[in-house]
Known about the structure:
Blueprint: E1 2-7, H1 18-31, E2 35-42, E3 57-62, H2 73-82, H3 88-92, H4 96-109, E4 113-117, E5 133-136, H5 151-169, E6 175-178, H6 181-191, E7 196-197, E8 217-221, H7 228-247, E9 252-256, E10 272-276, H8 281-286, E11 290-292, H9 303-310, E12 315-317, E13 332-334, H10 338-350, H11 352-369, H12 372-391
Parallel strand pairs: 1-2, 1-4, 2-3, 4-5, 5-6, 6-7, 8-9, 8-11, 9-10, 11-12, 12-13
Helix pairs in contact: 1-12, 7-10, 9-11, 10-11
Amino acid sequence: MRLLLVTPFPPCRSAAHGGGAYLASLVDGLARRAELGLVSLTLHAGQPAAPAVPWAWLGLAAREDRPDGVARPSDRVRMLWRWRRSPLVAAKHASRRLEVLVRQAVTEWRPDAALVEMAQMAQYLPALRGVPTVFTDHEAGCPANTHTGLGRLGDARDRRLWRRYVQRFYSQADVLQALTAEDASSLSSQLARPVLVRPPTVVVPAEPVHPELAPGRALFLGDYQHAPNPEAAARLAHEVVPLVRRQQPDFVLRLAGAHSERVRALGELPGVEVVGFVPDLHALLASVRFVLSPVYSGDGVRMKNLVALAHGVPVVTNRLGARGNEAPPLACRLAETAPELAQQCLRLLCDPATAGTAGRSAHAWARQHLDADAVAAHQLERITELLAQRRG
């Protein structure tokens, strides 16, 4: 089977954000069963696109954003012009070059089906007309990083544009998918049609790390360009860390991830260390007792929590942070208020053996439920059913 992927960024295991790592894991499973092509946007020349995958067709188009993230006046004017009809995140991912590459892949490579990933890429579904398409939404029809910088009224207008965008483009896919049952239900209500669930997947190391041997510190991991992450990091630094340090004065929360300049000021608070992007994720997770990562906005799956569990690191989070995550309570501990979160942290800090047991439970669960081969096989079965229906 020839399968074309259309993505907003190249799948990459070492990506600074959960989406890139998630797609890389999915691609690993698909590549063992299908012939894969990729059309994707990229910020940097030479950015890896799951290099271990022998892409049968590959087309990368440079995004118009400046790599340093500093928009020129002409960039801002162009985005505001596009914002007349498209939500801002979708406008930032609009590329005539990418549309040309999609059409070129269809005519030259002739895929049997296409997988289109994430909300901002739904605008390319018209270019796939005639190809059976499966569209997967990752955040219930409106990505969390939708702050326009134009105030409350600007953000409200952008949310209205997202609702129109979803109605306009999502209906053009043959099959709709979400990553959680909650998101699938929400989208199904919006669109009055079935929305299926594709389980998340991450790369699960063969052996877990040993949190019981790590010092008494925790990790918050994320791309701080994604609005829910600096919001959560600030609340943890100001509200939870001081409560933990009253009983464990040496406790440190490490803030790791790309665009850490947005949370640099938090590093001046007692017990908070900003480490930025760390390419060796395994070593980073091995350096902490647990991951502390509640979130307070956004939908979809928190891939960073799944990555931690896959490495054998227990997670302390809240109900929103655990969406799409059914790990056992020993491995993934839920709490809502700052005192409750601090209490869960102290249990793991005061008893290293419990942290080790929780980590082994996390790793065992991940091997059973996050396996890329199982998710890829399920996805291809769904595509096979779609092709049979089209033939019928």
